[in-house]
Design goal:
single chain; 442 residues; 2 domains; 6-stranded mixed sheet; 11 helices; 21% strand; globular
């Protein structure tokens, strides 16, 4: 078994981690929702109308360009609302649960058709472009990450639970879809074994748990090549589908963050409402809270009356504004002041190695890129990040290709964005660059 040690990156230690591995049952949701923006590359065209009945695993909509790619309902019930925004863009589809647990049965004779019809295909990602893959392409390799290294991220072994038994079957299904190998990227000391897959251990700080980072350090993507990435929870769902004939969207969600009184794991369903998951768990200290569906680096800000977003297994709650009128601001000499770099005296006292209180402030405004190689310290890939970002902003296709645009996804730049003294929205820049490049090359 190979071991890859990554030195670049940074483990952001935040208060509000889960101390107890006990999994509690969340309240049974009365309604759930699917947000189309979570499935990058799909333009939704509805198959169900408001008021129509739907089974768990039955298609809500398909892709306008490739009709075989479908996104399905996580629960059985009635389509309560199709919420549209500007230019009639579908922002979310709300399903009112009937709690009948009525699942659609799938024909498993064709692996590709079963994955497409069940909606599990939409949970895969393709590089280049970091989009839902086309069923017409065959990947060179498939990379599966088996751990999440993001701040306060859940332990995927706990999220899997008894479904870990289906990983072997899921790997078997995926191995039939590629001419190459299926790679399992595991945390050092926690390796999973599955026949038909190559297991590689990774040791190092975040973003070591990103599937794209693992792929870049095992077998990078070259121009003209296609790989798929996913996580071990999706692989287990695929295995369960091909064992039982139904798709299971139940999941375990980690509720974490400084503003959570008792961080814990809750068992619920994909797309569940946020409010019941947080009810009675928020610290009452008068602070305004920011609720994030996901982790603090890549998650989406949501309101209490909204729903879990992809990847449907993490909620973080932090203060919105803490110490708004801080004395001397960025020039403060307080030993409690945090910086990734040694810019404040706190590093002498080991503050960077302790759990920290953070809020949602950016602590500065956007300005020109500082060419200091600070991005390179945070991204363990063979890429000149500053030059790639400049090429994306200028949309210089030749330079983008030469600098590795086909290897990356926005999430790979999340840590760079956090540590960026220029305060640039790197994830947005990369996402827009990938979308423009895909449109230009198609």
């Amino acid at each position: 078994m190979a071991m890859i040690k990554l030195k670049k990156g940074y483990d952001l230690k935040l208060k509000g981690g889960i101390a107890n591995d006990t999994i509690f049952d969340a309240p049974v949701p009365t309604h759930c929702a699917i947000v189309p923006d979570d499935f990058t590359g799909i333009i939704p065209r509805m198959e169900k109308k408001e008021g129509e009945q739907v089974k768990a695993g039955e298609a809500l909509y398909h892709d306008k360009t490739e009709e075989r790619i479908k996104v399905t309902s996580p629960v059985s019930g009635t389509v309560k609302a199709i919420v549209r925004g500007e230019r009639r863009k579908i922002e979310q589809i709300v399903v009112e649960c009937d709690n009948n647990d009525d699942h659609k049965k799938f024909d498993l004779s064709s692996p590709i058709d079963a994955l497409l019809d069940s909606g599990l295909w939409a949970m895969l990602r393709q590089r280049p472009y970091d989009v839902v893959p086309s069923p017409c392409t065959s990947p060179r390799d498939i990379f599966v990450t088996c751990f999440d290294s993001a701040p306060l991220a859940p332990n995927l072994n706990l999220v899997l639970g008894e479904d870990a038994a289906y990983i072997e079957k899921g790997v078997d299904v995926l191995s039939k879809l590629t001419t190459g190998s299926v790679y399992l990227g595991c945390k050092a000391g926690e390796a999973l074994q599955a026949s038909g897959a190559e297991t590689i251990e990774f040791k190092g700080p975040h973003p070591a748990g990103n599937a794209g980072i693992q792929a870049g350090n095992v077998k990078p993507v070259n121009k003209g090549e296609v790989i798929w990435t996913t996580d071990v929870v999706t692989v287990a769902r695929i295995g369960k589908l091909f064992t039982t004939g139904t798709v299971d969207f139940n999941t375990v969600v980690a509720v974490t963050g400084e503003q959570v009184e008792s961080p814990c794991y809750l068992k619920t369903v994909m797309g569940a409402p946020v409010k019941p998951l947080l009810e009675g768990r928020i610290v009452d200290n008068g602070k305004q809270n920011r609720i994030i569906s996901g982790n603090v680096l890549t998650g989406c800000q949501v309101k209490e009356d909204e729903f879990l977003r992809a990847p449907y297994r993490h909620i973080t709650v932090i203060p919105e504004l803490q110490k708004q009128d801080e004395f001397m601001g960025w020039a403060s000499l307080s030993p409690k002041k945090f910086s990734v770099y040694r810019n404040f005296p706190g590093w002498l006292l080991g503050m960077n190695r302790k759990e920290m209180n953070v809020d949602a402030r950016i602590n500065g405004g956007e300005h020109a890129i500082v060419m200091s190689s600070e991005y390179d310290r945070m991204l363990p890939m063979d890429i000149y990040v500053e030059f790639l970002i400049k090429a994306i902003i200028a949309f210089d296709i030749d330079k983008m290709e030469q600098l590795g645009i086909y290897e990356v996804a926005p999430e790979d730049f999340a840590l760079c964005e956090f540590a960026d003294t220029s305060k640039l929205e790197l994830q947005r820049i990369v996402r827009e660059g990938l979308d423009k490049l895909k449109k230009e090359m198609s």
